[in-house]
Amino acid sequence: MKKSLPFFLIFWFASLGVFAQASETVRVKSGEQLSNNDKYLYPQFTTGTVLYRDGRTVSAKLNFNLLLREMQFLNTPRLEDTLAISQEYTIRHVKINDDIFIHDQKAGFLKVLGDYGKVRLVTAQSLQVGNVDKEGGYGQSSGVSSIKAISNLPNANSSITPLSMKGDVMYSHRASYFLADQGGVTYPANRKTVLKLYPKHKNVIDDYLKENTVQFSREGDLKKLLEFSDGLK
């Protein structure tokens, strides 16, 4: 059985150059572990399918680890060991329930949110450390003096080195958005990308952006923009 991960971890996401949106915040008390319900995208490992680029299809119990941003599976036959899918570049897509994931070398596994003709809206989801409250007297979190940006990173084998620091840890669920073209190439979801992917309708789309408030960190705004752009054909 894979051991529970220490709760001191941050995954640097700024290097992707995308807009991130924080949602639900989770506080983990000093000395406690992050629960699997918060750590994973789905409540439990579910039978899914991995489709490889060479046409092979493999079924397994799958789940997405938001903390490590890994697609993981339960090893057979005992279904006790948790392992991460390797050689992601050989994968065409992963299907869990009705959800489809594609893989990008920089952004990792991206969940498909919508298909708009030649463009797909996809998201990279993660669970990141926000604040760490210093432990005060009697082993209680002070809640006032906090430390930002824990610098530990996960190793290639999914292990991490814990920090010798005590206190409550605040996690936040984050989603960053990309646009994927027909060839599977992904781009940050922004104005420049939309105009690039719809070159014949730049002027009309530009007018839409001037007349409508579009926040590229909001899923709803992106879907409305892509519905409009796809309808122009």
Mean pLDDT: 78
Number of domains: 2
Question: What distance lies between the first and last C-alpha atoms, to the nearest angstrom?
Answer: 52 Å
Please estimate the helix content: 10-25%
Number of strands: 12
Q: Provide the succession of SSEs.
A: EHEEEEEEEEEEEHHH
Individual helix count: 4
- Rg is 20 Å
- Name the structural class: mainly beta
How many strands, what sense, and barrel or not for the largest sheet? 12 strands, antiparallel
* Gross geometry: flat
Question: Approximately how much beta-strand content do the residues carry?
Answer: 35-45%
Instruction: Point out poorly predicted stretches.
Output: 1-20, 134-165
Detailed description of the structure:
With 233 residues, the chain is mostly beta strands. It folds into two domains: 14-186, no CATH class; 190-233. Helix content is 15%, strand content 40%. It is built from four helices and twelve strands. Strands 1, 2, 3, 4, 5, 6, 7, 8, 9, 10, 11 and 12 form a twelve-stranded antiparallel beta sheet that branches. Strand 7 and strand 8 form a beta hairpin. Helix 2 (191-197) runs antiparallel to helix 3. The model is unreliable at 1-20 and 134-165 (pLDDT under 50).
